[in-house]
């Protein structure tokens, strides 16, 4: 399963493509044949699988190294380093056969020992492999009977087991030389077996990747990627208009503005609806007075007019969310609807929970405690984040709840979020295609259950869902979980967004999918200039 904090980029719900004139790339593009992509911050780690689930750490891992399997734009599993695999009848043994001729960037062959080492790293908490660790928690052993055979034995059957093998592979002969995987020489200059070689990373400025000419699946159609770091989206956009960046994601306002902007190059815009969700998590710790009651948590969501906000502020580029099971995925409950906007119901639920404005100051209180709470958010240069928090603040004020906002930089945000040091937190998560969401909802020790939510029935259903291979039975399990979560609202899932992006119209090969444009096969390897030099 793949979980990570997502940058607060508001995204589009429906694809829109604007055609532009197609002329050959300028001389500089034809000469360099690289593609320059904007990212808003440097990766937390360039260790390929570390980085606490950071989106851009994962991106570098995906580009520099390869994995046993991949997914195409239709979300179908594709063989990568593994040319085949077989699952035993009891679902407890998974055997991979590695393809011949896959090499690390230093020329050494990729072997089964590297796969076993990668799993061991992911299982080690010191690696901080938050994106991958939970997918291997049921792995009992990884045996390597020969260089091209990997035999994985599980303690218990795990229906989403294949998703974990999307993890980028790590070379044992190099990474094992470091005493500390996250800070050693390998993490500073990683070596993979993927389509791009790591050249350099300058914190806060750039990451340079060059094409791997010896890639087993054939070299990429572009010479490499230059990931340019611009924390401020407006600055990045101006750089894009000047032709200094070839592709960037954007918020709706800039995305719309770009349609009529003067620029040095033709432009295309497109979007995809990512496997992600934007939410407010309500801290239910016993030491906090506000959100232990499910009725209060439902009241918070009934107070938000998400349909109106989407229409007026987001230009109808998002839809109210129902749960963390994405509506474009196979596990969403088709019979559920998002909680509707209903201020009267919100007030009633608050009063039933004992929160009443007895002194007439506009703020409800209970047992001498005003309903005043703090919302933790990640600092962002994007205007839409401030507009969202202001909207939530005003909406709750109208039903008698006072909310302040605490914006922090990433390090402080993660520390407060992961330790439960907040009243409520607003952020987002991205997902893979797995049905299992145990890391979010399992009681007490789940890595993403920051809000201390616990429900015995949900725990039992999550465990059953992980071990059930029958499709219809499994769908019924996850639909029941979604029904419970909709009623209890431990996390208020606010919106499912799309992901708008814009790029130089002379680029070819970009194919959006629910998994994005980087993570599918062939993905970035197929990107190329319209008139690239021969052989590129």
Task: Provide a brief overview of the structure.
The longest helix is centred in the last third of the chain and has 18 residues. With 536 residues, the protein is an alpha+beta fold.
Determine the structural class based on helices, strands and strand pairing. Answer: alpha+beta
CATH fold-level label of the largest domain: D-Maltodextrin-Binding Protein, domain 2
Give a count of the beta strands, DSSP E runs of length 2 or more.
24
Q: Give the biggest beta sheet.
A: 7 strands, mixed
What's the structural domain tally?
2
Terminal Cα separation, in Å?
35 Å
CATH architecture of the largest domain: 3-Layer(aba) Sandwich
Roughly what fraction of the amino acids lie in strands?
A: 15-25%
Spans of at least 5 consecutive residues with low confidence: 1-27, 532-536
CATH class category label of the largest domain: Alpha Beta
How would you portray this structure in words?
There is one protein chain. The chain is of the alpha+beta class and 536 residues long. It has 15 helices and 24 strands. It has helices at 27-32, 55-64, 112-123, 172-175, 185-188, 233-241, 252-257, 294-302, 306-312, 343-352, 383-397, 410-419, 438-441, 456-467, 471-488; strands at residues 4-5, 34-39, 69-71, 77-79, 82-87, 93-98, 139-146, 149-154, 196-202, 206-211, 224-229, 247-249, 267-272, 276-282, 318-320, 365-366, 369-370, 372-378, 402-408, 424-430, 491-497, 499-504, 507-508, 528-529. A hairpin with a 5-residue loop joins strand 5 (82-87) and strand 6 (93-98). It is globular. The two termini are 35 Å apart.
């Amino acid at each position: 399963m793949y979980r990570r904090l997502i940058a607060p980029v508001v995204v589009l719900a429906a694809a829109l493509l604007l055609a532009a004139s197609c002329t050959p790339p300028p001389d500089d593009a034809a000469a360099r044949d690289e593609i320059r992509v904007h990212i808003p911050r440097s990766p937390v780690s360039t260790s390929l699988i570390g980085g606490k689930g950071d989106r851009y750490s994962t991106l570098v891992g995906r580009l520099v190294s390869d994995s046993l399997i991949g997914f195409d734009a239709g979300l179908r599993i594709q063989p990568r380093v593994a040319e085949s695999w077989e699952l035993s009848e009891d679902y407890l043994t998974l055997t991979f056969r590695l393809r011949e001729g896959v090499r690390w960037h230093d020329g050494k062959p990729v072997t089964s020992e590297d796969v076993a080492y990668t799993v061991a790293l992911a299982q080690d908490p010191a690696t901080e492999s938050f994106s991958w660790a939970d997918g291997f928690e049921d792995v009992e052993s990884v045996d390597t009977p020969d260089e091209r055979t990997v035999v994985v034995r599980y303690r218990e059957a795990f229906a989403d087991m294949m998703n974990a093998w999307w993890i980028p592979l790590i070379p044992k002969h190099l990474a094992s030389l470091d005493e500390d995987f996250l800070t050693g020489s390998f993490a500073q200059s990683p070596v993979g077996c993927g389509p791009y070689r790591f050249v350099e990373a300058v914190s806060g400025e750039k990451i340079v990747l060059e094409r791997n000419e010896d890639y087993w699946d054939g070299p990429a159609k572009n010479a490499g990627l230059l990931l340019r770091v611009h924390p401020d989206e407006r600055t990045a956009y101006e750089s894009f208009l000047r032709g200094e960046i070839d592709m960037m994601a954007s918020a709706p306002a800039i995305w719309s503005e770009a349609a009529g902007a003067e620029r040095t190059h033709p432009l295309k815009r497109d979007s995809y609806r990512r496997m992600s969700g934007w939410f407010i998590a309500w801290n239910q710790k016993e030491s906090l007075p506000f959100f232990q009651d499910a009725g209060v948590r439902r009241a918070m969501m009934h107070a938000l007019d998400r349909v109106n906000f989407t229409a007026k502020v987001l230009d109808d580029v998002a839809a109210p969310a129902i749960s963390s099971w994405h509506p474009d995925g196979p596990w969403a409950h088709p019979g559920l609807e998002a909680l509707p906007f209903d201020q009267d119901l919100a007030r009633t639920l608050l009063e039933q929970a004992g929160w009443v404005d007895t002194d007439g100051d506009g703020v409800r209180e209970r047992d001498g405690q005003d309903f005043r709470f703090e919302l933790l958010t990640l600092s962002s240069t994007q205007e839409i984040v401030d507009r969202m928090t202001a909207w939530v603040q005003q909406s709750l004020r109208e039903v008698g709840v006072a909310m302040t906002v605490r914006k922090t930089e990433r390090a402080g945000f993660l520390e407060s979020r992961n330790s439960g040091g907040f009243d409520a937190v607003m952020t987002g998560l991205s997902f893979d295609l797995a049905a299992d969401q145990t890391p979010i909802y399992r009681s007490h020790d789940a890595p993403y259950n920051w809000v201390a939510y616990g429900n015995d029935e949900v725990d039992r259903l999550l465990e059953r869902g992980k071990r059930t291979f029958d499709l219809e039975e499994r769908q019924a399990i996850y639909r029941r979980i979604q029904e419970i979560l909709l009623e209890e609202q431990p996390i208020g899932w606010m919106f499912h967004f799309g992901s708008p992006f814009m790029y130089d119209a002379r680029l070819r090969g970009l194919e959006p999918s629910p998994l994005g444009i980087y993570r599918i096969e062939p993905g970035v390897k197929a990107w190329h200039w319209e008139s690239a030099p021969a052989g590129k």
